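Study this fold:
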Amino acid sequence: MDPGRLPMLLWQRAGTDLLGLRMEETPTNFKGGNPTRGGLRAWMFLLCGVVLIQLFAGQTDAQRSRGPWQTLSGDAPLVIARGGFSGLFPDSSLNAYSFAQLISVAGAALWCDVQLTKDGAGICFPDLKLNNASTIDFVYPNRKKSYLVNGVPTQGWFTIEFSLRELSNVTCKLIRGILSRSEKFDGMYPISTVEDVTTQIKPESFWLNVQHDAFYAQQNLSMSSFLISASRNVSIDYVSSPEVNFFKKIAGGFGPNGPSFVFQFLGKEEFEPTTNRTYGSILSNLTFVKTFASGILVPKSYILPLDDKQYLLPPTSLVKDAHKAGLQVYVSGFANDIDIVHDYSFDPVTEYLSFVDNGNFSVDGVLSDFPITASSSIECFSHLGKNATKQVDFLVVSKNGASGDYPGCTDLAYDKAIKDGADVIDCSVQMSSDGIPFCSRSIDLSNNTMISQTPYAQRSTHVPEISSNGGIYTFSLTWAEIRSLTPAIVNPFRVYNIFRNPKETNSGKLILLSEFLNLAKNSTSLSGVLISPPNFIVSFRMQCMRGLDAIKAVLDTLTETGYSNGITTTKVMIQSTESSVLVDFKKQSKYETVYQVEKIIGDINDFAIQEIKKFANAVVVRKETVLSLFDSFITRQTNVVEKLQKSKLPVYVELFQNEFVSQPYDFFSDPTVEINSYVLGARINGTITEFPFTAARYKRNRCLGEKIPPLYMAPVEPGAFLQVVNALPPDQAPNPVFTDEDVSAYDHYKRCSHPFSCGDQGGLLYPFWIPDREACGSPGFILNCSSGFAEITVSSVKFRILKANYTSRIIRLARPDYIDNLCPSNPLNGPFYQTALQLAGDTNLLTMLYDCQDLSSLIYSSEAYNYFTEFQCKDHKEGANNYCVVINSSSSLFNGRDGIDLLKKNCTKDVSMPVSGFNLHTLHSDNLKKTLQQGFELELKQDCSLCLNSKGACGYNQSLGKFVCYCDDGTHGQNYFEMFLCIKTEVTQLTVFSDFLVSGSVAGVVMFLVILSLFLCFLWKREARRRQQNLKSLIPLRQYTYAQVKRITKSFAEVVGRGGFGIVYRGTLSDGRMVAVKVLKDSKGNGEDFTNEVASMSQTSHLNIVTLLGFCSEGSKRAIIYEFLGNGSP
């Protein structure tokens, strides 16, 4: 067995057995009512815990570091677990104590804050007031009292108000005392007595802290009597207190082998309650402290003070002074999830080392809520020289340099990344307006510089292809202007009031790509560089706007700096989220390519891996792709890394950050634990980090050189902690499987979700497209941008885009030949097929009649004179007249095709086109020109609207020949049963239904699916009806019902012909005319293609084409009615 895997197996046992000591299972939410008893008691954890502790006791003793410690005794500093492992479990719970003993270095002390009950029992509880860390206020809501505590009036539920029996109430449980910690373990554990801890946990070293002896004495309770009595049955190793007189009381009470006494210092300005002296004044007389104690416990600031900006000041001489006085020095206040001073870069290991291994002194012990970090700091990372042997091999890749300490992509960030031990430094390439490539984490300079405070802020522009919001983009400034900007550090956790290195917020300067490459080339420690060129959308935009070719600029700079001709051995890796970008680099160079999978996935199939191997040498995935999370806990480890590595694709994982809020609770707010779990547990090939020092130091971790690493350096077992939470999370849908289609589909999603510009029109999306955006548009909607306008050609007729509003889903087009011109030289006649866009509801059909005989008698003798107007052309012919006629659903000509045909027969040419009807209530010449200028409106079809509303991107699958919806989790709508929705994202139209659902209930899910199906069905049916109504108004034909068709053909009595698409029957209209009725085979479509074709045929006139008289489109029934020729052929 691999020795590195043994600790993981023991972790798993700890998760299922030792951590499974849930005393009582109770509901999570105590605010809604009193907790109730819910589960069975499980006391069998003890046996497993003892076995594991004994198994590792000998091993960890052997592994205790033997470096030259500067402690008073010369031994390694003591790890003291405050309330057990109180950084995760409720303080002083049996689970906290057992886990702390299991996971800490051998000999670690378990800390118990001793409180006394009304009947004199000693309990382990972190405060005098029970309501600070238990459910006491819900169990006994009317027992709140007020007492003077060290002279300060204090209200709460005090321990002295309750007997041990009352506190043993099954509903009185421990909860977290710090609200930022997980609530998942609240309400599971009872309050424990001092005897409970010693008999059940059997600590190797037990530390009792007495915080309020004077208070208990005022209530006629004796803490000293309790301790002396308890010592007969309990092994006590340390006793601490901040009260001088307490030590005088217990002096001599324990005999010669009694516990060590440690005097606890509080704030320097606070008064010690029994001597009325400040702790600061007592500190100046350590020889006095030595008369009653063998050690002191002090806050961290007593040794390493801070300035008002939370930076370290020079250390005090306290440790050396105390050692000189014969006092051991213990330090309190260590917790991974509190604000750590800026000098430590949010790295708790660095903080511990500053107290135990600074080359000047070492404290004798540390009091910590996270004893795993204290243990690893002392045993694994202390006394490591700069040239210590690397124990594990993986790449440490920077993210914008050491961007956790300095503004990203600046000279200082890169210098520190190299100094900190990064193997690879990275550059996100951007382009200036004068074509200079440089490094910047964002194309929008307002994201990482102080440009908003400069005159350049006026250059803010809205580029929809890049962002829906405005920005000050790099290609709007020259390099000289950009170089003058002040960089700014990025604070990703500002919402938590966590800020990075304020002293260096604006330090450093942005650097050229060439400077970055020369810096890397001249470094003796770096093995490579990682370059991320702009994605396709940005590159295309820069090339269109400024003529900037980012890929060429990167390749040219690599050549100029000696990377392409073998001058340097530094490896070059090109990274992109888009396969097309990497393919371009593959074609033009031999550099390694790295494919970045931006979305979180749960698996990857073999076809996708083979597709990736065609253009990439390695893969970057997100942390959640490797270790799945739910509610800030790890649920499982996926097989994505294993699969990719089996195919010889190294896997680099991002993004590693030191701030504790960036990590799930399983990692104990310790970035080193997180790195260890990914490297030793998931076996990744590299970390991409904003704090390279932490990852680089981990590689020299002494404990990894052991045959079997200790438990405090074991990778976390995925899902171990979720097995013991107070309420299991609901089943969740697994993250999607990454398929071969996703390799290109995600490119499509990113590309097609960004609008583009053409001519004078910006913000364009589906169905329009330009070269390299074929997947984003519908066939026939390719745009021509060369004239300065955005124009498409449909059936040889040009249409110009006047407006594209994707918020309202309205597109407005016009025929450019009819803008400012009623009489084009050679107007073409062609229908506008509604394959991707549908005509708006008020659209009418306008027919222009040219070179006509005088039609006034025909027009004014009819009831349709309001729908005609006469106009003049510049080259007016004598005796020729021009007319226009509009047909809509209210026109008396709607069923009068014969009348329209009669008009056309008296004219040389006719042209029909859609127009918006709001200007044509009464048609006359003064609004005809305006009507043609304003064109007509189209609407996005329902499929694309649904896709956009669900945060998807509309597109077209060329191979399938159909509309699809690109989503961040793949392509939807490719199969018949798929909806055109990004199901996993919020659909704004459907949110009303979610209010009716009960979270997590099966009935709620079923109800949602039923309502969703009915709602979509309603939408589609309504849309189909509306389309039919719109089309009716545009086709100057009579539409017959299917029942009428049956009457015309006398129930299909006489067949006159057959064909591949249907049967032709003889029929007779009500006016006696003979007709041929072609009944098409049943169709499963919505009839739109059929009606489009009818619209086209209705506008076609030719001597050799029979006249179309009408049609039927009802459900799946389709029929076309023609004039009947003598030979019976339609």
